[in-house]
Design goal:
Distance between the termini: 54 Å
Helix content: 10-25%
Bound molecules: calcium ion
Number of strands: 13
Largest sheet: 4 strands, mixed
Shape: globular
Structural class: alpha+beta
Radius of gyration: 20 Å
Number of helices: 8
Oligomer: single chain
């Protein structure tokens, strides 16, 4: 539930600009767009803080400090929560299909060495243990560094007033007044005071949500956690290989059965995105980890619940390079990011989709789905899990 927090509203010019940013017909009604299967490469799920702040320079926002004092019970991280993912080779990516996006092409051969992987997304309780042990402060809890932010904004953007540079994060906000599936500011809002411990804003808390995945985590926050517990983030190739769970040429971690057939398979958006959520999978928002059946490797929530940050930079053309240059053995991504839509905003890869994904939009719970993610932006549907190398023996 959205608590009593202050929101920064997006001006009309932002709606205008974003409507022009994709080829979809923004004037169609949501249901028509769902039938058509909207395929905007700039998906519903990637909304950088730089973009949000840039579009709210004309608005005023008060400095908000967290007032919630709830202290979460801590659960030390344990490698017993990991499983061995065997070495192997597979065809990474997707061929052209109804759901696949161009960034998943072309399929290319990949070999992956064996590694250990967390069986579930990192939880609030696990992240709390890290915070308690280290005193680490996440990106969403720090004032925004203007020197960094201005590099991500159009040249000559004036420095915002200090109230706009207060700590915050991107919060998914259900909205029944949605005019198209292109303007994501209709359901994403920059909320001051939102962070991992206050996921909807300063008045909200994670009390009773200890087993839900931690969110509002940016790349740097995830790296800090992995270094603390002696693990690392998975590469995109490792993540996809693990998500496939030993199956070959399948669409989902469980095979090819559609989500709306058989038993509930994962936490996704059931209903009409983003205006009606039927929650027939049991959850309108986040689900506790391990709620649904594991895949063949014993991994939970490789589809849905929260997007999972990978270590790779995002480059739309990387798969083609892998194919052309025979980059096969444990590919770890390009040297830097490449994303023409927001060239100045560093992007990492995220995988697996979230509780917001729906077949009508990005269908990102498919094992080959991938998305660019602004590496310094926290969001209410993005978390991570860790991997660990096997100990080397002489
Ligand atoms: Ca759901
Ligand atoms: Ca997930």
């Amino acid at each position: 539930m959205i608590m009593n927090h202050k929101r920064l509203q997006f001006p009309l010019i932002f709606i205008f600009v974003t409507m022009l940013s994709c080829d979809d017909n923004g004037s169609k009604k949501i249901a028509d767009l769902q039938k058509k299967g909207s395929k905007c490469e700039k998906s519903c799920c990637d909304q950088s803080r730089a973009e949000a702040i840039n579009k709210t320079l004309q608005n005023r926002g008060d400095s908000i400090r967290s007032r919630e004092s709830y202290s979460i019970p801590v659960t030390p991280d344990s490698s017993s929560n990991m499983v061995l993912i065997p070495a192997g080779d597979f065809l990474m990516g997707s061929k052209a299909s109804k759901m696949a996006l161009a960034r998943e092409f072309p399929k290319h051969q990949v070999q992956v060495s064996a590694f250990y992987m967390d069986i579930h997304e990192v939880t609030n309780a696990q992240y709390a243990a890290f915070i308690e042990a280290t005193g680490y402060q996440t990106m969403a809890e720090r004032p925004i560094n203007w020197t960094v932010l201005k590099e991500q904004l159009p040249e000559d953007t004036p420095k915002p007033t200090s109230d706009l540079l207060q700590p915050g994060s991107m919060v998914f906000t259900p909205n029944k007044e949605v005019f198209n599936l292109i303007d994501f500011s209709q359901w994403w809002r920059w909320v001051q005071g939102a962070n991992w411990k206050h996921p909807f804003g300063p008045e909200s808390s994670i009390k009773g949500k200890e087993n839900e995945p931690v969110v509002h985590i940016c790349y740097e926050d995830a790296i800090a956690y992995t270094e603390w517990c002696g693990k690392r983030l998975p590469t995109e190739a490792e993540w996809e290989w693990a998500a496939r769970g030993g199956l070959k040429k399948k669409t989902y971690p469980w095979g090819n059965e559609p989500l709306d057939e058989g038993s509930q398979k994962c936490n996704y958006w059931t209903g009409l995105f983003p205006v009606k959520n039927t929650a027939i999978d049991g959850y309108e928002g986040l689900a506790p980890v391990m709620t649904y059946k594991a895949n063949g490797y014993g991994l939970y929530d490789m589809a849905g619940n929260v997007w999972e940050i990978c270590s790779d930079w995002y480059d739309e053309n990387y798969y083609q390079r892998c194919l052309d240059e025979l980059i096969i053995n444990n590919p770890s991504g390009p040297d830097t990011w490449y994303y023409p839509r927001e060239p100045q905003d560093p992007k990492r890869v995220v995988r697996g989709g979230s509780f917001l994904c729906n077949d009508s939009y990005c269908s990102s719970y498919r094992v080959s789905a991938r998305m660019p993610y602004s590496q310094d932006t926290g969001m209410s549907h993005t978390g991570f899990r860790c991997v660990k190398d096997l100990e080397k023996t002489d």
